[in-house]
Design a protein that fits this description.
By secondary structure, the chain is an alpha/beta fold. The protein folds into two domains: 4-95, no CATH class; 106-323, Rossmann fold (3-Layer(aba) Sandwich). It has ten helices and eleven strands. The strands form three sheets. Strands 7-4-1-8-9-11-10 form a seven-stranded mixed sheet. It has a two-stranded antiparallel ribbon with strand order 2-3. A hairpin with a 4-residue loop joins strand 10 (306-310) and strand 11. Helix 2 (22-47) runs parallel beside helix 4 (68-80) and helix 6 (106-125) packs across helix 7.
């Protein structure tokens, strides 16, 4: 089975057998409770996602018509599968939230825009000629592309990138920009890689500043899209961004020596132990002097390893040089 909803669909709703005793019904209810408890514990173990009472109720509703024997078999099979198995990934995708949009949390991005020139200067002095940024929990990719635009602007202002004919930027050799976006969900990463977004309703562009709109040209309409207006990411931006599936609690990090790591609105969904593990992975990914940016409600696990950088209404954490 690929997901609990598919599991549910595979089983016809069954009526109680005639003459079923109260004791038998109670035993079945207890067996279901144990199976659901085991499933919740395994979800937390594999993904780090905290299974709240609301999530337990959601799972119970989805699986309510599944026969107890089939449910127990499925839960047992999941328990034996590795966390990267497609069956686990499908279940976790059904439980995760992927709400995001371009240029989200302007105050934090304004602080980052102040930091990037300093990181660019440090990279030049160190002879690295490269900026590396990681969006951890990137969902459909808007945050990763936002990072790329901010970094390209910083490189241009420093004289290390030129304007391209399409309105983007081209790094001057030997300078490079590398932006990585990761998420536990394969489905959202497919959209992130496509880099095509609708302008309908509460869209990904709902808070995009006017001076950044040219980075997202309107795409030609087709028979498939009808009257829906779609925008794509400028190739001069897209070429600097790559995506991969990654579980924050699986470790080790997908790379090291990042100048900037953003992990926003992810920690709030994790268990306490998973948060500690995720913070360790993020710290391992940073270069000394690199910056970690978290969501507004996220608490830093290890303050002694960082120096606090305050903005007008935002905060960033620079990894101590002692980690060199």
């Amino acid at each position: 089975m690929e997901s609990p909803r598919e599991l549910q669909g595979a089983m016809a709703a069954r009526r109680k057998a005639p003459g079923e005793t109260h004791a038998a019904r109670a035993a079945a209810a207890e067996a279901r409770r144990r199976a659901m408890g085991r499933l919740a514990r395994d979800i937390e173990r594999v993904s780090g996602i905290e299974i709240t009472a609301m999530m337990k109720a959601k799972l119970a509703r989805v699986l309510t018509s599944v026969d107890i024997a089939e449910l127990e078999d499925w839960v047992h099979r999941l328990h034996l599968l590795p966390g990267h198995h497609p069956e686990w990934l499908s279940l976790i995708e059904a439980l995760t939230v992927h709400e995001t949009f371009f240029h989200r949390d302007r105050s934090q991005l304004e602080l980052l825009a102040q930091i990037l020139p300093e990181l660019t200067l440090a990279a030049a002095r160190g002879g690295r000629h490269r900026l590396r940024l990681w969006s951890a929990g990137c969902a459909t990719g808007e945050e990763a592309y936002t990072l790329a635009i901010l970094a390209l602007r910083a490189l241009h202002d420093a004289g290390y990138a030129d304007r391209s004919p399409d309105g983007g930027f081209v790094c001057r050799p030997p300078w490079r920009l590398e932006v990585l976006g990761t998420d536990i969900s394969r489905l959202v990463l497919a959209q992130a890689k496509a880099a095509v977004y609708s302008t309908e309703g509460l869209s990904a562009f709902r808070d995009l500043p006017r001076d950044l709109q040219h980075f997202f040209p309107v795409l030609p309409k087709s028979r498939e899209t009808g009257d829906i207006e779609l925008r794509g990411v400028l190739p001069a931006v897209k070429r600097h961004v790559r995506f991969r599936q990654f579980n924050l609690i699986a470790g080790p990090p997908p790379g090291t020596n990042f100048d900037v790591v953003l992990c926003r609105n992810v920690m709030i969904y994790l268990t306490a132990s998973a948060r500690d593990g995720a913070h360790s992975v993020l710290k391992q990914a940073l270069r000394p002097g690199g910056y970690l940016l978290l969501g507004p409600t996220d608490a830093l696990a290890d303050r002694s390893s960082y120096e606090v950088r305050w903005g007008a209404e935002a905060i960033a954490y620079a990894l101590n040089r002692s980690h060199e």
